[in-house]
Design brief:
mainly alpha, Serine Threonine Protein Phosphatase 5, Tetratricopeptide repeat, 60% helix, TPR repeat
C-alpha cells in the first residue's frame, strides 16, 4: 500500500546533477570532466560517514542543474507517451521528425530545432492536426533536454491544449500524464516546489486509478486450469503499458523528493522506489537492462544527495547482475564508480578501492573519455583513503 502523500515539500534546496546516470536525461554525463572540489550539498540531511570533501564526480556535480532520472522510463514506453509513433516510410515530414529525434539523442539540440522548424512549416501547410501536434511535442522535448525551460514550458502547454481541444484527450490519458510529469519538473526547477509536488501527486493518483481499473480486466479468475499464469507474455504491451506508466510516475515523484526534499521524506522515497522495482521485475525481469539502468540512476542520484547508505542498498542489488546483461556492458565502469563512492562514504574503503579498480579495468575497452574518468576517479579515491594514514619511516 502506498502512503497517502499528504505532506508537501517546502524545501528550497537546490539539486545537484547526477553523474554516470543513464537513460533519458537532460544533463551530460560527468565522465571526463575536470575535477573540482565542492562541499557536500548543504541542507540535504544526508550522512556522509566518510568525512571531508569529495569531488570524484567532477565539475557537473556543482553546476546546480538536475537530472530527472525518472524519465528514463520514457525510452521504455515511448510509444505509449509519444503522440504518434514515427513510421519508417517515404513521408518527408515523418523523416524530418525522425531526424530531429536522432539529433536530440546525440544532444545536437540546435540541429534538431532547425529541422523541427522546417517540419512545423510543412505540417501547417498540410493542415493536419496530428502531425502538427507531433512536431510541437518533439520541439518541447528538445528544448526540455536542452534545459531551455521557458521554451519547453511554452511548447508543452501548446501540446496539452491541442491534446484536449483537438484530440479529445483527458487528464488520465497516457499522453497527458507524460507531458504533465515534465511540466511538474519545470515547476520544480523554477523553485515552485509546492505546485511541482501537486503536479507529481496528480499524475501518481490518476495513473494509480487507471491501473486499478486496468488490472480488474486481467484478474478475473476462470478456474485454476484455464487462468493465464503468464499475463505479461500473453498480452504484452496491452497489459504492461499502464503498469509501466504507473511505475514512471512513482519514479518521477521519488526523484523529485530526493532532489528537493529533506530527510523526513526519505521513508517515502524508499517505499516508492521499492514499488518501482517490483513493477520493473514484473514487466522486464530482475536482470533486465531496464532494471539495471534504473538501479544505476537511483544510485547516482542518491550518491550526489549524500544518501550513501540508501545508494549502496540499491546499487548492491545490481552490482553482480549487470555482468550478465549484455546491453549494460557500456554502463559497467560508471556503475562500479557509483557503487565505489557509496562504499567509501559508508566506511567500506577497501571494497570501494576494489570496485574502482574494476571500473578502470572495464573501461579499457571503452572510449578515451570513460578511461580518463575512471582513472581519475581511482586516483582521487586512493588519495582520499591514504590522506589520513600515518607515514612509515625506515631508518638504515
Amino acid at each position: 500500500m502506498l502512503p497517502s502523500m499528504s505532506k508537501l515539500c517546502t524545501s528550497t534546496v537546490r539539486p545537484v546533477a547526477a553523474a554516470f546516470s543513464t537513460g533519458t536525461t537532460r544533463q551530460h554525463h560527468s565522465s571526463g570532466r575536470s575535477r573540482q572540489q565542492h562541499h557536500r550539498h548543504g541542507g540535504s540531511g544526508g550522512k556522509t560517514n566518510g568525512g571531508g570533501r569529495w569531488s570524484r564526480y567532477g565539475k557537473s556535480a556543482a553546476t546546480g542543474g538536475t537530472t530527472v532520472l525518472a524519465l528514463s522510463w520514457m525510452t521504455t514506453i515511448k510509444d505509449v507517451l509519444g503522440i504518434e509513433k514515427v513510421q519508417l516510410d517515404a513521408d518527408p515530414l515523418k523523416e524530418k521528425v525522425k531526424q530531429s529525434w536522432l539529433y536530440r539523442k546525440r544532444r545536437q539540440y540546435d540541429d534538431a530545432i532547425q529541422v523541427l522548424q522546417l517540419a512545423l512549416e510543412e505540417a501547417e501547410e498540410r493542415k493536419e492536426d496530428m502531425p502538427i501536434t507531433r512536431v510541437y511535442d518533439e520541439m518541447a522535448n528538445t528544448f526540455y533536454e536542452k534545459m531551455n525551460l521557458d521554451e519547453a514550458d511554452k511548447y508543452f502547454r501548446i501540446v496539452i491544449q491541442r491534446l484536449v481541444q483537438l484530440h479529445g484527450k483527458k487528464d488520465f490519458d497516457p499522453e497527458f500524464i507524460g507531458v504533465s510529469l515534465k511540466l511538474a519538473d519545470i515547476l520544480a526547477h523554477r523553485g515552485d516546489l509546492e505546485s511541482a509536488e501537486s503536479g507529481f501527486k496528480h499524475c501518481v493518483r490518476r495513473q494509480m486509478k487507471v491501473m486499478e481499473e486496468h488490472m480488474k480486466k486481467f484478474s478475473v479468475a476462470h478456474g485454476a486450469l484455464v487462468e493465464d499464469r503468464h499475463t505479461v507474455d500473453t498480452f504484452g504491451p496491452m497489459y504492461t503499458d499502464p503498469i509501466a506508466l504507473f511505475g514512471m510516475t512513482l519514479e518521477a515523484y521519488a526523484n523529485f523528493l530526493i532532489n528537493y526534499c529533506g530527510e523526513t521524506r526519505m521513508a517515502e522515497v524508499e517505499e516508492y522506489i521499492d514499488e518501482v522495482m517490483k513493477i520493473s521485475y514484473q514487466i522486464y525481469g530482475a536482470s533486465s537492462a531496464h532494471t539495471i539502468n534504473m538501479l544505476n540512476n537511483f544510485g547516482a542520484t542518491l550518491v550526489l544527495k549524500n544518501r550513501f547508505e540508501l545508494a549502496k542498498k540499491y546499487l548492491a542489488i545490481g552490482v553482480d547482475r549487470i555482468l550478465y546483461v549484455n546491453e549494460c556492458a557500456h554502463m559497467l565502469p560508471g556503475y562500479y564508480c557509483n557503487y565505489a563512492e557509496s562504499l567509501f562514504h559508508t566506511g567500506q574503503k577497501n571494497e570501494a578501492l576494489e570496485f574502482a579498480r574494476k571500473a578502470v579495468q572495464m573501461s579499457r575497452s571503452g572510449d578515451d573519455r570513460v578511461r580518463h574518468y575512471t582513472q581519475n576517479f581511482l586516483n582521487d579515491l586512493e588519495k582520499d583513503i591514504n590522506r589520513g594514514k600515518p607515514k612509515s619511516w625506515w631508518f638504515f
